[in-house]
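Our consortium's second objective concerns turning raw sequence data into structural hypotheses that experimental partners can test. To show how far this objective has progressed, the report includes one record in full. It was chosen at random from the queue rather than selected for favorable results. The single chain below, 552 residues long, was entered without modification.
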Amino acid sequence: MTPADLADLLHATAAKVLAERGLDPAVLPAEVTVERPRNPEHGDYATNLALKIGKPAGVNPRELAGWLADALAATDGVAAAEVAGPGFLNIRLAAAAQGVIVTAVLDAGAAYGTASTLAGTKINLEFVSANPTGPIHLGGTRWASVGDALGRILEAQGADVTREYYFNDNGAQIDRFANSLVAAATGAPTPEDGYAGAYITDIADTVLRQHPDAVDLPQDQRHELFRREGVELMFAHIKRTLHDFGTDFDVYFNESSLFASGAVDRAVAELKASGNLYEKDGAWWIASTEYGDDKDRVVIKSDGASAYIAGDIAYFQDKRARGFDLCIYMLGADHHGYIGRLKAAAAAFGDDPDTVEVLIGQMVNLVRDGAAVRMSKRAGTVVTLDDLVEAIGVDAARYSLVRSSVNSSIDIDLDLWTKQNNENPIYYVQYAHARTCRIIDNAAAFGFASVAPDFGLMRSEREGELIRTLGEYPRVVATAAQMREPHRVVRYLEELAGAYHPFQSDDDMRVLPRGDEPVTALNAARLELVKATRQVLANGLGLLGVSAPERM
């Protein structure tokens, strides 16, 4: 019996109990909450259903819980049901009923944990979107990992997800980038507001090899050449780095196209016509405070140039015009102001502000021996995606960056993430998968195929804990999608590995028979449990874009 099956059973049982006692079943919620108690001695599962509906039903919650306990205890698959506290209900399932979870995992295979709750929802997921003025730094690397994982998780719930990279190829930072390249090409000092690092020299040298006469061009032509070629070379490097990291995008959207196509002008004109854009001090301002922003924002500067928000406004309109129901922006720690302004822009166009979600990611630091590490070889003092991968590998980099909530800053301990033992969280999880594979491979030498498993024989707490942990996976994935929190999957995998390792290491839990002993129905049931564990570990690692090795 899966947690979802138990929730349905509770709902049906409660409806029957209420009706039999002349009470209105309409007080029941659409969904019944079933949770695993922190203390296993309290049962396999617990529910607060009686506490939730006791008052509206006009019954003391503890008395109602007693009625439910009596009804459940007479139900197939329920070994015991006990009332606790003011009306909590603790439930123990029969071993055979818990075995249904193992069968459910194996029947679903790679689809276990998926659902259709977001079917029909078209989501634009924009992340990384680093300026093409340098390699991907650690903040962008965090989004490359978290954003890709979130896209996979949303898709696992049925959403139609488009991963999008907003290619900022317009504005002052691109001019500074071009000026830095020209300086490197001509042997001049790096401009005071320019970009430094060996990568600037590398790109400048590449442009010179392709255009030997570049430095002899008139200043404006020389600047445009280095700007155009430099951006193209830098962005090619960014795309290649992200691909090698396992993160690819469906759409690369050029900011400059919004200006070239007239989209910015049309957006500004629409806001003027609606009265949501007003003139003050020679500039045009969006009345964003009318829609919850903390201040009004300049859209067109007094010199007639567009402010950065002008492109953001037009970009949102473009996304909605492409049919996206939800636009998720994943931005860096210094972008808190974008939450209010993007939602306000949506409202100013008469759209629903809830079509905009902004996730803010906090800082990432590398540490070794407790001290910050400055290790970049190509980008000056900036630590890049390439640096992190070189230090700990792609799997560990992706896993470590998804492991914590994006709302918190994280320190990545390089010594920890390169250890080949269970102190390293990713090793701990991947090793659990490899151990399941080894048992399954070794089982081929025995006669398991001729013996039917009997899940009712798996009565130990180790077996029950592992089975119940497997049963939690669909809910974890659903919650991770709903809360936009991929780290929940990471923590779950560590919990699952924590339930599996003691199971396999316990000699009383032997899966394979010793010597010439025959395969028993208990051996066969445990092998099915191992197969189910392998499947869920692989499914969860797949959602993170992390490999599930068969040998370590």
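The partners drew two points from this record. The chain has a mean pLDDT of 93. The longest helix spans residues 219-244. Both points have been shared with the crystallography group to help prioritize constructs.
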